Amino acid sequence: MDHERRHNHQQEDEGQCTSIDAVIEEHKGRPDALIRVLEEAHSLLGHLPEELLDYIAAGLEIPPVDVHAVASVYPGLQIKTGEEINGENDAKHKICVCKGTSCYIKGANEVLDRLCRELNIEPGDTTPDRQFSLDVVRCVGACALGSVLTVDGEIYPQVKPEKIPKILAKFNE
Ligand code: FES
Questions:
Q1: Segment 23-65, tens digit of pLDDT
Q2: Does the pTM exceed 0.70?
Q3: What is residue 105's three-state secondary structure?
């Protein structure tokens, strides 16, 4: 995918983005809140990252064990661990930059551009040495912490472009 087309596609995503926080806020306190939030989060992301379940539990003020129990038996919901998400491409470390609305307004574009420059790849690509892959996601459910990126499923909060070299260095040791 060429650079311009990628960015156009990302801008469409930003317009459609509904943050997990907004979904939680909308349903909080209702009897069917947990199911509705799980379904909408799944629909936003295409799966449920395991760590997002704890975030949803905190947001809805429900014990995490209950959220995990419901998510694991409710039909149509797919839970993925960080390793599973990372294993979907063969890069050693998978970086995902959130470009959901909250992260976008907190500088996600600049973070992504810095990553592209540092890694010398475009979003959707993997470095030639297979050390890093770089992708864009709509929301990882930590909107209050934006701009957010994840490396191998671990959330890095309040990322600024100037922090990128230090984050990458950690994985190049
Ligand atoms: S917009 Fe939700 S974590 Fe970035």
A1: 898 999 999 999 999 998 887 777 788 888 988 999 999 999 9
A2: no
A3: helix
All structural domains of the chain, each given as residue ranges with its CATH number in brackets, are: 10-81 (1.10.10.1590), 84-172 (3.40.30.10)
Q: Which atom of ligand 1 is nearest to the CA of 142?
A: 3
Q: Which residues line ligand 1 (CB under 6 A)?
A: 19-20, 98, 100-103, 139-143, 146, 148
CA distances from residue 160 to 27, 81, 146, 166, 168 in whole angstroms, order as listed:
32, 26, 10, 11, 13
Burial category of 74 from C-beta neighbours within 10 Å (exposed 0-12, middle 13-18, buried 19 and up): middle
Nearest-CA residue for ligand 1 atom 1 is: 100
How close is the Cα of 108 to the center of ligand 1, in Å?
10
